[in-house]
Each structure stands twice: as C-alpha cells, then as structure tokens.
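Q: How would the structure tokens look for this protein?
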Amino acid sequence: MNTQHNLFVCTTCASTWKEGKRVGISGGQKLLEQLSHLHQDWDLRDEFLIQPVECMSACSHPCAVSFTAVGKYTYLFGDLAAAEETLPAISAAVLDCASLYHAKADGLLPWSERPKLLKKGILARIPPLPQLTVNSLET
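A: Here is the predicted structure in token form.
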C-alpha cells in the first residue's frame, strides 16, 4: 500500500493588505496555481496531493510550502519568492524536492541532495509521530 503524500501551499503568503482586506492575488496563490499546473503532468501526481492552506504562520518567510506523509518527517520551507519571473523555477524545484521526499522511506532530505532553490529557507523539520498500535490505544 502506498502512503499518501501531501504538499501544503500557503495561499495567504505574500499578500497585499489594505484596510484589513487582501488585495489582488497573493504570491502564495500564484505559487499554488503554478504548482497545480505542473502537477498535472508530474509522474507522482496520484501519490502527492497539493492542498491549499489558509495560513502556515510563516508570514515573515513567504512563500511557504510543506511536505508531509504518515511515518515521515514533515518539512516546512519558506522564503520561496513568488515573483512572476521566478515562479516556474521555484515550482519545478518544489516538485523535484517532493520527488526526493517521496523516495525516502523516512522523508529525510539531506541538504546536499535538495534542489538549489530549497537548500535555504528551511523553517522546520518535524519528526514523524510514533506509529500507534491497537495495543497502545488500549492502555
């Protein structure tokens, strides 16, 4: 059985605000749209869901994405600038890194193996939750 993998994308990152309301399309939304476009032809599209998230609390490091899967480390990356001219390269690097994440049984992404655009900007590496068994639930 394949483990479902998730790519979360913050859609409020790099937003412009006026009088408490978001104006225009956020950088995070633009990144999500570019990733969704590339995802259609990606060989792991059936095993890696792309999911928008309203906020990932990485506001000082926009744009933010996260890789998650059961039994694997969770990674949170930020500082993925979403300027129009950099979106294709950033999106391709995110999916390249997601492919690497998918291939690792524990999800560990060594710095030396990450795509250049994701070598910096790591905000968190969160250990996997321990696997719960029926016996541990009964105690």
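The longest helix spans residues 87-103.

DSSP finds three helices and seven strands in the chain.

Upvote if useful.
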